Each structure stands twice: as C-alpha cells, then as structure tokens.
Amino acid sequence: MMTFNAKITFTISILIISFLLLTTLNLSFFESIDWVQANDVYSYLKISLSYPQFPHEQIASHFAYRFVPHYFVGFLASFFSIEIGTSYSIVNFIFSFGIIYFSIRTIQAFHPKSKISVLFVLIFLVSPFVLRLNLFSPGLLADTVHIFGLVLCLYAVGIKKIPWLLVGIFFAAIGKQFIILELPGLLFLMSSILKDNQSKLEAILWVGLLIVYTVFLYFGLNYLGKSFADPIAIGFRTFFSFFFWVFSAGFSYRLLFEHFFRLLLPVFPFIILFFGLRNLFQIKRMITLKNIGFLFVFLAPLAYGFLPGPEVQMGNQSRYSSVGLLALVLLLLDMISDFDFSWDYRIILLSIFYLLMHTYHHKYTIFDSVQIVTLSTQLVSYVILYFLLHLMKDNKKPKSI
Q: What is the C-alpha end-to-end distance of the chain, expressed in Å?
C-alpha cells in the first residue's frame, strides 16, 4: 500500500464511508431494528433513554456491561436536544469513520510498499458484516466501538506506541466484554512492541500492567452495570451451549452446517486469498510474537460466536467472526512473500466488480432482496476473486537484480 499523509488518508476514508452510506438501505432508526431483528438494541435504549440516571428496569447482564457508549449517546441526545436515533447515528458514524481511517493507517504502518494490501484492507472495510450492518442499524453501536478499539490496538503495534494500545483496550472493553478473550492476543502484541526496546524487567512490568488494566476495566464495567443487570439472564453454561446442544435432542446436522457456514462467511474471501496465493505464503513467518497475537485477536470473537451454539447465536455468527478480521488481514500480509505486480485496467475493473459483489447483503443494501441472492453474489465474488488473483500473478513484476 502506498504511504499517504493524514489528509489523503482522511479523504480516502470519506470516500469509503460515503460509498457505504450511499449503498446502504435507508430506514428509520426503529424500522432498522425490526428489519434485522436487532432486538438487543431495545435493551440498549433503556440505558440511553434513562440518562442522566441508570435504568430502573433490569436488563440482561451482558447488555448492562456495555452501558458506557449508550449512556454517552443519551447524554448527547439530552445536551443537544436531538432524537435518540439521530444521536446513535452520529456517534456510530464517528466511530465507523475512525475504523476506516485507522485501518488504512495500520496497513500503511505495517506494509507501506505492499500493493496487494490495498485489496486486503478493502475486503475488510466493505464487508457486509463489519461496518455496513451497524451503519444500517446504528443501535448496534457497541460492536462499532469494540472494533474501533481493536483497530487502535493493531495500529499501536504498527507504530510501536504503548499508549495507543491502552487507549484501544479502553474502547474495546467498553464495547464488548469479550475483551477478556482477546487479552492473550493483546499480551503477545504488547510483547512484540517491548522485545526490542525494553529490558526484561520493564517488559514484565508492562505486561503485568496490561493484565491488571484490562481485568480492572472488565470487572469495573461489570460492577458499574450491576445495579440494573439481571444476573441470571445468561449464565456461564450459556457461553458453552454448543457442547450441550450437540448431545441434546435438538441437535441436527443442518443446524450444525449453518452454524459453521455463517461463522465462516466473512472469512471465506481470506481463505480464497490464502489458497489463491498459496505459493507466496511462508508459514514459518507465523511463529512470531506479533503474528501469534494477530491470530489470537482474530480467534477470540470468532470463539464468542461459536461456543454458545446455533440455538443462542443463530443470525449473529457473522457479526462476531468479522470483529477481528483486520488482525487476520495483518497476519496474512505478514506471511506473504514480496509480491509486486502492475496495476492495469483489467485488474482495476475486476477489483471494482469483485468488491461490489462482495459488499452486497440482501437485508441492508439499497437493493434489498432474498437470502439466496446474497449467497449467489458471494459465490460469484469468490470466483471473481480467484481469477483476479491469477491476473495479478500474471502481472507480477520480476525481481530486480
């Protein structure tokens, strides 16, 4: 990816988010909730509409934990005397823009000369499951805030600045409680920053601080939301329901297949990238502190989408498995050997056509349709992507001697 200054990156980010907004179905705030059955938003509304107090009515404990972004939305709505839906849209837009801007800056920090990284990061940003759903239904703000926090964490590794990592963890923690699942990956990432610049004692102290800081945020947010949380709404067993479901009378192979398919749907383009460029990947590059961290950060939210099983997570699997996709992008780019190719009109046009197919979703793009259309466009996009990769390899520049 070419290195841009902040002003050019800002302009590119505006263009990307404008494309997403212009091609996303436009419904009112409350219509969008019902359209995608995002019923958890109604629990979040109890928080935001209660400002300046906390809700008197109990809500599920895992929703109560995420009160900070929604309480802030309530504050803005009250302070500026605007509708709650408008406040959600504004805050969600700001964080979505931040995800785009810092994703580009992150790729630039790690791979400033990589041309193939342009395709990788665009696949992430225009995915129908990363930003588009939350732009359509901004009440799902917690997802956006969490992804923004993770992107800042990855950016911190790219520029080797620990304060950025701590800021990223803060935003990730107030967005979703599976920050605690991502903690092992974050420890590896922090260690990759420290290994060349700090003594062993200083590195151990920083790692200890990161653990204490993250755990403090996790339990602190749980404690603050305790006054309006229903502690028995979702128990420990719920998070491992997959294993109980497999041995229950409700088990079916159809549901098992659908569970895995939905979970992996956002990942399929990167699987194709891996196999399409398999001769260029060097698996041994995975065994570094940084890349192990990327892998764990990617797998943590995917596990959150998988472990509760289809009876709990049906319809949400793709939301969760897409949360850590930028970490997967960075992992794959770091494993790939030098790959320089010439951009020509065929590659550019085919890339645009692929991204248009890739970004489509039957529920919340402007041309709403039925589910089979999304499946069809995704399958077509996989074929296009595979041919695109072959075209890029045909245009590969020889290494200079």
A: 23
In this structure, is residue 127 part of a structural domain? yes
Do 336 and 277 form a contact (C-beta atoms < 8 A)? yes
User: What's the token pair of residue 268?
Assistant: 């399929």
Per-residue b/e over 366-388, b at no fewer than 16 CB within 10 Å? Answer: eeeeeeeebeebbeebbebbeeb
Q: Considering the entire predicted model, what is its pTM?
A: 0.94
In a domain, 399, yes or no: no
Name which residue leads in pLDDT, 6 or 69.
Answer: 69
Length of the chain, in residues: 401
Q: Provide the percentage of residues in the chain whose pLDDT is more than 90.
A: 67
Token digits of residue 284: 């041994």
Give me the number of domains the chain comprises.
Answer: 1
Band (pLDDT 50/70/90 cuts) for residue 401 is very low
Instruction: Find, among 120, 98, 100, the residue nearest to 330 by Cα.
Output: 120
Q: Is residue 401 part of a domain?
A: no
DSSP 237: G
| Burial tier of 315 (Cβ tally within 10 Å: 0-12, 13-18, 19+) | exposed
Nearest to 330, CA basis, from 385, 285, 277, 263: 285
> Whole domain around residue 352: which residue ranges?
6-394
The CA–CA distances, whole Å, from 26 to 137, 212, 316 equal: 10, 43, 21
CB burial of 47-74 (b: ≥16 within 10 Å; e: otherwise) equals bbebbeeebeeebebbbbbbbbbbbbbb
CA 263 from chain centre, in angstroms, equals 13
Decide: 189 and 153 in contact? Cβ < 8 Å.
yes
DSSP string, 81-100: T--HHHHHHHHHHHHHHHHH
The answer to whether position 43 is within a domain reads yes
Question: CB of 73 within 8 A of CB of 112?
Answer: no
Q: Is the peptide bond before 69 cis (omega within 30 degrees of 0)?
A: no
Q: What is the pLDDT of residues 293-332, one digit of tens each?
A: 999 999 999 999 999 999 888 888 999 999 999 999 999 9
pLDDT band per the 50, 70, 90 thresholds, residue 61: confident
Give yes or no for a contact between 153 and 103, defined as CB atoms under 8 angstroms apart. no
